[in-house]
Amino acid sequence: MTVPPSPPRRPEDATPLVLRPDLPTRAGFDSDHPLAMGAVGRDGPAISHLGDLAALLPKEASVPVVIASDATGPWILAMLAAWAERRPEGASALQGALCNDAIRICQGPASPAWSAEAALDLAADTLSWSRRALPQMRGARLPVAAPMDGDPVPPLAMALQSGLALLAATSRRERPQHLFAAAGGIEFVMPGDTPGHRAAGAYLAQLWHALLTERYGAGFAPREDLVLYSDEKGPGFARISPPEIDVLRAALAWREAEGTFTCDHGPLQIAPPSPATDTAGEAGPERNAALARWRQERDGNAVQKSLLALREAAKRGINVMGPSVACAKAGVTTGEWAAVLAAALPARSRPVSHAQPIPPADLAPAQARLQQAAQGLARPVTLLLVRPGLDGRPWIEHPVFRAAKDCGVDIRDPGARLSPATITQAVSRERPHVLIFCLASTQSAQMTTSILVDLQKAGFGSIPVLGFIASGEEWLGFEEFAGSMTLRNIGETTAPALLDDLANLIISRRSASN
């Protein structure tokens, strides 16, 4: 019997629509929020409500949609479902996937305000709900990072850890018979499509099935569609030999023993904006006016009722996706949805870093110079670490700052996503010997300019300022700070160099005071 060839795929089927909003949307802020200034539309479209989303979607409901919205991924999915329910095909016709790696999201710039554990529970809610309400949508697409130095084990172990943590959270919130269906919504994406990637993907699929069977029993059928392969160019995977399964198991066991939400600090980097969106970055009067009209024209009572139902579901541990869809239909905005969850869920705590400590002997000379420079100070050397803008990554756990703390430096972090006025108040309250700015983006540079002006007006211009840049790319435009702060690249700075900078800045401040 001759098997007929498959019909050719249509272009819209082969190329999904990727929804990756701008950083304010991904972090849970509306485009007219003060903290969104300078970042609106810079690295993607601003999506503040269902109307914004509908304007981006094609008329053909069969086009697959891939959502890459970090902390607000569940909200974008809820709005997508609300949009689809209004169409003749209904929500069941939706195809695509939600990039739903809670571990990676919590370590990224758009990390949520709620705790890492709450983020994992929210991802589990989304996975379970999507399998029931949107059968053609995959509720958890987990990327496999490119290997570093040709070692395939760490990225595979990280992806397996994310998938297992998500399934464990799902098992705590779902009945056993529903766990098998939820697992069908998980898929992995390799960072390329070469023979090495294919070998690693087959290896990952084999171990994934074995681990599920070991932890939850029989019933998880092997899946040919578990692993996808992207067409992006990047470092390839070396071919994997069967004996390495024990190595991967050991790496996975070590990561799980260290804790689900540990920090894997490499150089803190952020990709420059694409040329197509580089002229964006600030919400114009027209967009702000349109957002104000949206809020004014919606049914205020329906909004408040839907937000109340969302808050109660989040506080009681009930799946929040149904209430989120109701919020989308009522006209709730991205910032309102995120604010309710931030108030109802446990707050984010500082993640644990498992970076290897620096041997004291390597720090002794620099520590001695800092102690000599600090003689006569009434208290230990105090740093204030401020993070202007929306980047929520925990810089304080970077190895160079941990080493400084080990040497007796008092490092204070008032938190992420603070307004310039709040940062100025923190400087007035803490009275640091050195002020450190964490500069992760163009937006943080713009806010830093405002903060430095405010500090000058408040009489704090004599505080030495050290700026750490997350990327050395010229587009960041930090040249204007050359006269007002000492600039360093976090990826190129060692702990002894940081201690030397602190000693020099304290000496310079004492000389200026004299």
From TrEMBL:
Spans annotated as Disordered: 1-23
Protein name: B12-binding domain-containing protein
Transmembrane domains' residue ranges: none
Record domain B12-binding: where: 380-509
UniProt keyword Isomerase present: yes
Entry cofactors: adenosylcob(III)alamin
Family: Belongs to the methylmalonyl-CoA mutase family.
InterPro entries given in the database record: Cbl-dep_enz_cat (IPR016176), Cobalamin-bd (IPR006158), Cobalamin-bd_sf (IPR036724), MeMalonylCoA_mutase_a/b_cat (IPR006099)
Protein source organism: Limimaricola cinnabarinus LL-001
Record GO terms (molecular function): cobalamin binding; intramolecular transferase activity; metal ion binding
